[in-house]
Amino acid sequence: MDENEILTPDELADMPDPPYDPEEWERKRREEWEAKLAPYKALREQINDHDELMAETLYEVTLLEIGLEE
Q: Please, what is the end-to-end C-alpha distance for the chain in angstroms?
């Protein structure tokens, strides 16, 4: 059979279904999705670290300004 050959509905009905494992398909789909998200997750972690440092700095500056810390 040529790969470009057009099959009739009867010929298609006679063909066996390809092997399909839903668990394997789902695992591969999740792996691909996590690989796509990985750079964004790393960036989010860097932003969270930066935000935490900024919050600590602003807290300390505020305490210095109101005279509660030297």
A: 84
Confidence of residue 44 (pLDDT cuts 50, 70, 90): very high
Q: Is the per-residue pLDDT at 69 higher than 70?
A: no
Q: Do residues 69 and 60 touch, judged by C-beta distance below 8 A? A: yes
Q: What DSSP string runs through 7-64?
A: PPHHHHHHSPPPP--HHHHHHHHHHHHHHHHHHHHHHHHHHHHHHHHHHHHHHHHHHH
Residue 32 CA to its chain's centroid (Å):
8
* Tokens standing for residue 50: 């930066």
Structure tokens, 56: 């600590």
Structure pTM? 0.54
